[in-house]
Write a structure and sequence with these properties.
By secondary structure, the chain is of the alpha+beta class. The chain has helices at 45-54, 67-75, 113-122, 144-171, and strands at residues 8-11, 25-28, 60-64, 80-84, 101-107, 129-132, 136-141. The strands form 2 sheets. It has a 5-stranded mixed β-sheet, with helices on both faces. Strand 5, helix 3 (113-122) and strand 6 form a beta-alpha-beta unit. Helix 1 runs parallel beside helix 3 (113-122) and helix 2 crosses helix 4 (144-171). The longest helix has 28 residues, at 144-171. The radius of gyration is 16 Å and the shape is globular.
Length: 172
Amino acid sequence: MRLSDGRVAITASGVDKGAATVDDLLLIDAEGQVLGEMRRPSAETPLHLALYRLSSDIGSVLHTHSVAATVLSRLTPGSSLVLQGFEMQKSLSGQTTHEGAVHVALFDNDQDMQRLSGHVAERWPLQHGLLVRGHGLYAWGRDVPEARRHLEGLEFLLACQLELERSTSRRT
């Protein structure tokens, strides 16, 4: 998460994110330099920092590697995954109905996080989150609770979409 003084709290590399505590967080500056200790930040730090630079409204970025996000990102051609007709779309800020469509941007995976960040910047602005093919979901919000709501909402929607695609393929 972005702190009021411009520093960023981010998990250290190799930390089990599901069991992370405050002791597993590092403080880094806006360029990704660790402040005051020797541990390394997460390998995805450059993309997190790019998102903070792209919007001053982003106060927290969360990232997961779920099966649904990873599989759907590989199965979906094109530059976005469209989610439509699910009540949980309303878990995303600004979404007031299941009737609209939520477009989740898709990006090809790249081990060069600076280059991937550049591709994200080229397509900015994006809303709520993005998928990296074969890798996972990034979601953001004004603060940690909103980012978590977006993450959990998108993960639920992705799981529903994957089930929908599975059931559709079984019938054909």
